[in-house]
């Protein structure tokens, strides 16, 4: 456990020491065993049936889920007293990362173990768990989550599905249509959200066998073709009153809290997919020859490989840093107390902004990775005979799943600003200090003999810049800042890059001492390459935000601050890229 339990968002104003950060190098033997079990399962049980699954022979998916149940992979989040393993989030995320190499099967797995199971675990009564949970965590039944409707996606509370109590008071009659339901074609239990009397947003546990539940046709999708995605139509669907999940009128708590979990788990899954895609690109680059040489020998290809390797390293570092934050916080809750899961959800909600960061950053890294892997393949990357084409199609949904990346960017900044306005995060006082720093010239020299000192100064400068821009925006727009979506999104892009750079640097600082000289050089190269690229992105977002917020002399002053606080001495950048690329090309896989 870390020496200090962090508050959500406090990384923007407080220093984190590397010893308090969880990294993949900290995995226990038990966690590594789960990873190996998952990898073996994918290799032996799923990949041999890949083509059938892609052609929507869901019998292999259902059989695979049952095998997952036998291996204990579906019960990691369930309490021990309910028959589960109740493992930490790092273990859960590691399994998610390893399952991602199974292609479309991973979508079914993630939906089942996340949004399909967690509502029952967190909010189910003892009777509901006794009736359904063992079936779900054993893989006997598959589960699904029904929130989205044809007319409501991100605006979930505008859902039109209704629930009306029957005359005898024994059932609710549900009417409406749910859209884009993962596992819809073969799930046996659905968590359905509906408004009782068209007003009280409430969750229900609905069995496939209940009269009035109709499974629609499979959607014809761009990617993840081997996953089931259907409409679920409710036509006077009879749901017993004892199947109300949680409190009447409090369905939004279930919907949004479970999505926070889905976001950080998705971060782990897409990181695993990015590693797999990079490996495919490396193998092809070594095999494909042009002008008498493998294309991996050319600088244009090597730069892509270096940039992707560094970005995936940052993605992995960020994901497991968040796992550590969550596990440290959850470990403070006493098990067995009456409101355990209420406290549990509050602990996860503490890091809602970080969960959004994980989802956005990691899915963007996967998007960049698969795009470049197609580019490395050239024309062959556009042909379905090569895996690169499927990776490209399958990736696209991840920036829409679990709330679009745009919505998540708004949530990241909005959540942090709300915490500030409630006095939970002293951003206002820190913003005043940042403005003072803007007005005060700095002649401090960096002691480059200290590992990663240059990067640490850059991180602190980016935090100062964010505080300047956030302070200016809040001062100008006050409580109406929530309506300024363009500003919030630009601010989120700065926040995201700060958290990602810091995660990469802290991990490197923590582990480098125990590495060989060659590995330390590769690690330092990854940090330099990523910090340069991420700082450039943060600088672009900061300039945009400055133009959005200010004008005249104040704008000129802030733009000078942007130039000052986004300076990063990336001396030796080309050498670092070549070091990183050569190591990845030789290994033909993700390095770290």
Automatic annotation (TrEMBL):
Pfam families: Acyl-CoA-dh_C, Acyl-CoA_dh_1, Acyl-CoA_dh_M, Acyl-CoA_dh_N
Domain Acyl-CoA dehydrogenase/oxidase C-terminal: start-end pairs: 249-413
Gene3D superfamilies linked to this entry: Acyl-CoA dehydrogenase/oxidase, N-terminal domain, Butyryl-CoA Dehydrogenase, subunit A, domain 2, Butyryl-CoA Dehydrogenase, subunit A, domain 3
Reported cofactor(s): FAD
UniProt GO MF annotations: acyl-CoA dehydrogenase activity; flavin adenine dinucleotide binding
Family: Belongs to the acyl-CoA dehydrogenase family.
Protein name: Acyl-CoA dehydrogenase family protein
